[in-house]
């Protein structure tokens, strides 16, 4: 029987509120620095080669649609499965089921490609999910873009219900 709870992880990992929803703590920043001149032109500055956070969603919370300029690698750690929704540049909706029940189509790892919109929520009735997110080149809030509901709906009208539910 798993005695860990969302409160346990928040306390022990010292998680704080995240602007997209949920709670997080940055736990790794690579010492290797990538110079802006070696990155694509849309990166506003130098970046660490890689960063990693713990990220936790509780019941009735969601990660609101957002995007960043880097690839984002999601790892499952504890709790229940998480649904991650990705809208790629062609407007296709990709659903990732992050968890450990392989027979139900879950995977302990998934990749969100740079520049794609993403949002996440728990499967119905789940108390929490603890995951990790690795970003390369490393994450910087300067590149974080939280979706504006109506603009995203205009761009991807076939995902209207999902966008309405998972934007702030």
Tags for this model:
five-stranded antiparallel β-sheet; globular; single chain; mainly beta; Jelly Rolls; 168 residues; six-stranded antiparallel β-sheet; 3 helices
What can you tell me about this protein's structure?
- The chain is mostly beta strands.
- It has 3 helices and 13 strands; from the N terminus they run αβββββββββββββαα.
- It has helices spanning 6-12, 149-155, 160-165, and strands at residues 16-17, 23-29, 33-34, 47-48, 51-58, 62-67, 71-79, 82-87, 93-98, 109-112, 117-122, 128-136, 145-146.
- A 6-stranded antiparallel beta sheet has the order 1-2-5-12-7-10, covered by helices on one side. A 5-stranded antiparallel beta sheet has the order 9-8-11-6-13, with no helix packed on it.
- A hairpin with a 5-residue loop joins strand 8 and strand 9.
- It is globular, with a radius of gyration of 16 Å.
- The relative contact order is 0.23.
The first-to-last residue Cα distance is 35 Å
CATH top-level class:
Mainly Beta
Total number of domains: 1
CATH architectural designation: Sandwich
The CATH topology is given as Jelly Rolls
Rg result = 16 Å
Please work out how many helical segments DSSP would assign.
3
Order of helices and strands: HEEEEEEEEEEEEEHH
**What global shape is seen?**
globular
The helix/strand class is mainly beta
